[in-house]
Design a protein that fits this description.
It comes from Segatella maculosa OT 289. It holds the Pfam family tRNA-synt_2d. The structure is a single chain. The protein is elongated, with a radius of gyration of 38 Å. It starts with a helix and ends in a 7-residue tail after the last helix. It is built from twelve helices and ten strands. By secondary structure, the protein is α+β, with helices and mostly antiparallel strands. The protein has two domains: 2-85, no CATH class; 104-342, Bira Bifunctional Protein, Domain 2 (BirA Bifunctional Protein, domain 2, 2-Layer Sandwich), CATH 3.30.930. The strands form two sheets. The protein has a seven-stranded mixed β-sheet with strand order 1-5-6-10-9-8-7, with helices on both faces. A three-stranded antiparallel β-sheet has the order 2-4-3. Helix 5 crosses helix 11. The relative contact order is 0.11. Bound molecules: 3,4-dihydroxyphenylalanine. 3,4-dihydroxyphenylalanine binds next to strand 9 and strand 10.
């Protein structure tokens, strides 16, 4: 009789569960307290025949131990669950957590965008992984033209050399965004295309395999070179100060005709000539020109009705001029000593 009772209790104890600390305590009271089920067995134990006492005593002790172990383990499981759901994380950095700063390229990019947005330009985006058609062909780069060499980039796939849409590459300039935009929109529009671009260059203090550009494009009826010049003068003065002068030198880009390179008066020596401007008084900051009619036509825009201007600048270049960063590599090294220099710049 008593042995059976012990067996049943053993099984019962083995399958106990509890959802919270209260329930564990209830179980402890039920089985292990003075008035609990196990102690109650003692009343019967007194009546057990002497030769059975040892055997049954051992069984009762086993039951007591099993109940104690089970209840302890239920309690432990509950505290583990509690600490897992608790959001106290002792490995976190103590307060105050230092605030980061904007990256210098972001600060300058935002400043460029802000100036042109005030002149009516809106942002347009394009893919960093693009095809030959949009990055070169639609922009009037003939397949065998040496201008392609100026922008040697990384080719990802060339499954069909004769099909420019099958030649997948990392864009070498954000001018590709212009072809994407022009082929899907009707003029007039004034767009600004900021973004990262890639070139196959050996990495040094003065060149990197990726950098950032902001390009602008305005297409409308009767857009003229004078408009371009005035917009760029306004930009230069906003960016580098009201005393800034600009000059345009003839240049070549496949997608503009005529094309020009723009210099600003050296804001370090005020145009007098110094080491920074190589004693010329001028520093180059961007390329620009009137959109070549071939580009407009390739994008489905009637070049008899519309004209446009475009320009493109390197964000690193402008940042170097503003903050005199001497080594391009510092922009992507993530050295917090360098980045902390710009905490107050924005
Ligand atoms: N895409 C040129 C480059 O990467 C820069 C440029 C020059 C962009 C003239 C233009 C432009 O839109 O009109 O060197």
């Amino acid at each position: 009789m008593l042995l059976e009772k012990i067996e049943t209790l053993l099984q019962e104890v083995g399958s106990l569960t509890a959802k919270n600390a209260d329930e564990v305590e209830q179980l402890r009271l039920k089985y292990l307290s003075k008035k609990g089920e196990i102690n109650a067995l003692m009343a019967d134990f007194r009546n057990v025949a002497a030769d059975q006492k040892k055997n049954i005593g051992i069984k009762i002790n086993e039951l007591k131990q099993a109940a104690t172990d089970k209840i302890n383990s239920l309690r432990e499981c509950l505290t583990q669950v509690e600490t897992q759901t608790d959001d106290l994380d002792l490995t976190r950095t103590a307060y105050p957590i230092p605030l980061g700063a904007r990256h210098p390229l972001t600060i300058v990019k935002n400043e460029i965008i802000d100036i042109f947005q005030r002149m009516g330009f809106v942002l347009a985006d394009g893919p960093e992984i693009d095809n030959d058609k949009h990055v070169f062909t639609m922009l009037n780069f003939a397949a065998d033209h040496p201008a392609r060499d100026m922008q040697d980039t990384f080719f990802i796939e060339q499954s069909n050399p004769d099909d420019v849409t099958k030649n997948i590459l990392l864009r070498s300039h954000t001018s590709g965004d212009q072809s994407h935009f022009m082929e899907t929109h009707k003029p007039p529009f004034r767009i600004l295309c900021p973004g990262r671009v890639y070139r196959n260059e050996a990495i040094s203090a003065r060149a990197h395999c990726f950098f950032h550009q902001v390009e602008g494009l305005y297409v409308d009826k009767n857009v003229s070179f004078t408009d371009l010049k005035q917009v760029l003068l306004t930009f230069a003065r906003e960016m580098f100060g009201p005393e800034t002068k600009i000059r345009l030198r003839p240049s070549y880009f496949p997608f503009t005709e005529p094309s020009a390179e723009m210099d600003i008066s050296c804001h370090i020596c005020g145009g007098e000539g110094c080491g920074f401007c190589k004693h010329t008084g001028w520093v180059e900051i961007l390329g620009c020109g009137m959109v070549d009619p071939n580009v407009l036509e390739a994008c489905g825009i009637d070049s008899n009705e519309y004209t446009g201007y475009a320009f493109g600048m390197g964000v690193e270049r402008i940042t170097n001029l503003k903050y005199r960063v001497s080594d391009l590599r510092m922009f992507s090294e993530n050295d917090t000593r360098f980045l902390n220099e710009f905490v107050s710049a924005h």
